[in-house]
Amino acid sequence: MPSGPSQSTAPAPDGLRPHLCVCICTYQRPELLRRLLEELEKQETGGAFDYSVVVADNDERRSAEALVAEFARRAPGRIAYCSEPRRNISLVRNRAIAEARGDFIVFIDDDEFPVRSWLADLWRTCERHGVSGVLGPVRPHFDATPPGWLIKGRFCERPEFPTGTALVWSQCRTGNVLFRRAILPAGEPPFREQFGTGGEDVDFFQRMAARGEKFVWCNEAVAYETVPPSRWTRRYALQRALLRGKNSLKISEGRAVLLAKSIIAVPLYGIVLPFSLLAGHHRFMKLSIKCCDHVGRLLAAVGLHPMDARPM
Hints:
The protein is 39% helix and 15% strand. By secondary structure, the chain is an alpha/beta fold. It has 2 domains: 19-229, Spore Coat Polysaccharide Biosynthesis Protein SpsA, Chain A (Alpha-Beta Complex), CATH 3.90.550; 233-301, no CATH class. Helix 1 links the parallel strand 1 (19-26) and strand 2 (50-57). Helix 7 runs parallel beside helix 9 and helix 8 (255-276) runs antiparallel to helix 9 (281-301). The chain is globular.
């Protein structure tokens, strides 16, 4: 993948450049993966660092292999393919890291695509602040016009911060992150298998924070997440909340406190929800999603699991 010019990064002498490896976990999304790989070809390094790409396919049929091979022919030695047939997001992340080479690990989701200065902005911010890693914003991208309630409720938007802001572990995720390979503990998998349906990134950053690792924000390192029509539905939003509630019990040490809050919250939401329609459908959906977070947590606590996999 060729590197374009960058006026803000001075070239480093050969042999002294750090190496960044972009890790992509994918599952049956060829067109979105193609868009991402095309944008990665355009990353601007200014000669300050080298980078490669690892695509870890979580499909036992290896459906992404031919597409990755197409890009590998265009840039020999720059892109690698591997497969993890067991459906588990933690296992496929670990597989990608095992195949990665270099000094820095970078994660971006297969339904995202970055701006051209993305890698350079992440790396420069990490070096400038001397931290363990850097996260950047993930902003929604729609190829068509979504429902009004989805936009009005800002359901696809995430918090952003000024560049250099120190983050707590609960603000961190793997959708757009660079971290130093050296922070990974030896002798144990970076992501834990029990978080196979989600929450693996929150667990990872919680453990890293406990080890004293520091992460900051870079608001220039933008990635866009393609939000397809299948995610514009009320069903998708509520199913995802149920799964998020279930996974929250695996992460938090304050399990009893969380359950107590949910026991109180669910009947209160049941009372308030009908009246929230008066404030607009987006308000009703926002409260419904919060209610499902609590319901998913309570159901998991008694051994009921209405959602065992991520909604697609």
